[in-house]
Amino acid sequence: MKKIVIIGSGVGGATVAKELSHLNMDIKVIEKGRFVDKLGNAAIFGLYDQASKKQSKQGVLVYSTFMGGGAGVVSCANGVRVIPSELKDRGIELEAEFQEVEKELGINPVPESHIGPRTEKIMKAAKDLNCNIQPMQKFIDFDKCIKCGMCVLGCAYGAKWSPLVYIEQAQKNGVEFLYETCVEEILSIDGEVKGVRAIGPKGEITFEADLVILAAGGVGSAIILQNSGVENAGGNFFADLYV
User: Pairing relation of β-strands 192-200 and 182-189?
Assistant: First the structure.
């Protein structure tokens, strides 16, 4: 049976795990953080990587969350298409994929009922300047949303889609999730991947694999690749300083 190791259980890792779970494979998902089933409380702040004080060369502090489902659990649920015209110019047509994701995650624009007075003022000012401002696309069921504004603690009302949905589906199909286990490097011999080395609750552990799928986020993936001998990994890293 083919052995697959997926590093990270966030949006990417959980999606791949769910998709592959229908196949006859030995699949393990290794997650640095722990699984949290009680969302929407301040305890979630303890999962933000604040202590390490990761900073860019420009001094920007980069916050990350380590938990089952990753940053997808505490995101603001923005579901905007990413550079579709630029991709199309390079011969990459993703219209069908965009539509599939938007349907599956229930992506739709923020309705008027959920637009606050300050946002209304911004929208009016933008229109006065002839800016074509549009409501944000969100993967939120607004019939369930109580407008608490605490998406960054995880949605306790089931209104927002998160990778936890896919984790549950993958587990039902036999995928094994290992939490509080940090992958240090990808192991290879003569350029061929053989597995990963990680640190778990009981110390160092090695996992053999025929295929390793790296989905540890923009920062985490680059660090693992650097530890694995890919020196220029993360060289073009870009962070959107929206928050």
Answer: antiparallel
Q: Are 215 and 7 in contact (CB under 8 A)?
A: yes
Nearest to 219 by CA among 229, 211, 227: 227
Bridge partner list, 95: none
pLDDT tens string 17-32: 999 999 999 999 999 9
pLDDT > 60? residue 50: no
Closest CA to 176 of 66, 68, 29: 29
d(CA 101, CA 186): 30
At CA 217, angle to CA 214 and CA 222, rounded to 5? 70
Q: Which of 232, 239, 196, 199 is nearest to 218 (CA)?
A: 239
**Residue 48 bridge partners (DSSP):** 65
Q: What is the pLDDT of residues 156-193, one digit of tens each?
A: 999 999 999 999 999 999 999 999 999 999 999 998 99
Torsion over CA of 227, 163, 116 and 134, rounded to 10 degrees? 80
Q: Which amino acid is at 76?
A: C
Structure tokens that stand for 9 in this block: 């259980």
Query: What does 141-165 look like in DSSP terms, one character per residue?
Result: -TTT------GGG--TTS-B--THH
* Helix or strand run (H / E) with residue 6: strand 3-7
